[in-house]
């Protein structure tokens, strides 16, 4: 199979979909790898590293899309990239379709087969291709929130760990999954007073057993959140409903009860955000203010640490990429029901129910298209 990797063109996105290590593995298994010149530079991988791995370097994204049977990316294809997709081509990347009707309809019109990293599952019910970036984003969230809290950025001017005689920042983490756990660990490690909210009692027991004493836990409810919001210096939104739009958990009317200059960090922004006033921002202009509350809503947070993120993502995606290349997407998905869970679109049909529900588009059972 011909595997293609173009440069990412979303603003301030420095990751790359294919590492030289993954390229070498694919070439060793008899596949052809095509990489756009400069695609890996933002993550510290020069063209020479890909050439040494046996990949062929081309000058433009169009050459990649025209020649590749399967396109490997990081972020969802942008409008100009979607126009280059064709019927029968496999696209393997993050998609986050639920809040993005334009992308969904373009992918349906292209006739391609689109497999989303964020909905591939594993035997334990986890999301193995989302987890690495969730770990990165979770660890970054308190760091970005602490920066947002600085007075020069419009924040309250509160130091996360405080100093002797002055209390630490109070942080609420909504969601105790991968993102929330890593966010709570880092925020607590910075010295903050941290409370994690979740609706799964088994998850809360796990967090208490493993991290007891490092941070507090609470059963997530509208009442408890309203009780905690007036005390919060920072709220980290870390809620995920796989493949679906994120629920809106903090409403604009509640800002009146919060401290002026408090920071909201929305890690769920790829799925539409979990704060009512959230809208995607970029690393170039990451913060905005609504009613005195500062918002950090960068949609590709892991792109800020592109090398770490690319290596972590490449480790996770490589086995699935090789299975798709060696077996073809139909056989690979038939052999692995967890990979089949990643199938979102095939030949003009939507194959992920949660996206269909979010956008009002009819969906079909993914197994029916095998």
What this model shows, in words?
- By secondary structure, this protein is an alpha/beta fold.
- The chain has two domains: 2-120 and 306-369, Rossmann fold (3-Layer(aba) Sandwich), CATH 3.40.50.720; 131-299, Rossmann fold (3-Layer(aba) Sandwich), CATH 3.40.50.720.
- 34% of the residues lie in helices and 16% in strands.
- The chain contains 13 helices and 15 strands.
- It has helices at 20-28, 47-52, 61-67, 79-82, 101-110, 131-148, 178-189, 201-211, 222-228, 306-327, 329-335, 337-340, 353-359; strands at 2-5, 32-36, 56-58, 70-72, 90-93, 113-116, 170-174, 193-198, 216-219, 234-237, 263-266, 287-290, 293-296, 343-346, 349-350.
- The chain has an eight-stranded mixed beta sheet, with helices on both faces. The chain has a seven-stranded mixed beta sheet with strand order 9-8-7-10-11-13-12, with helices on both faces.
- It is globular.
- The two termini are 19 Å apart.
- The mean pLDDT is 96.
Key features of this structure:
alpha/beta, globular, Rossmann fold, 13 helices, 15 strands, 2 domains
CATH class category name of the largest domain:
Alpha Beta
What does the main sheet amount to? 8 strands, mixed
CATH superfamily of the largest domain: NAD(P)-binding Rossmann-like Domain
**Distance between the amino and carboxyl termini:** 19 Å
What structural class do helix, strand and pairing data support? alpha/beta
- What count of helical segments does DSSP give? 13
Overall mean confidence score, pLDDT: 96
Count of distinct structural domains: 2
Helical proportion?
A: 25-40%
CATH-assigned fold name of the largest domain = Rossmann fold
What's the total count of β strands? 15
In spatial order, strands of the major sheet run 3-2-1-4-5-6-14-15
Q: Return Rg in Å.
A: 21 Å
SS strand fraction: 15-25%
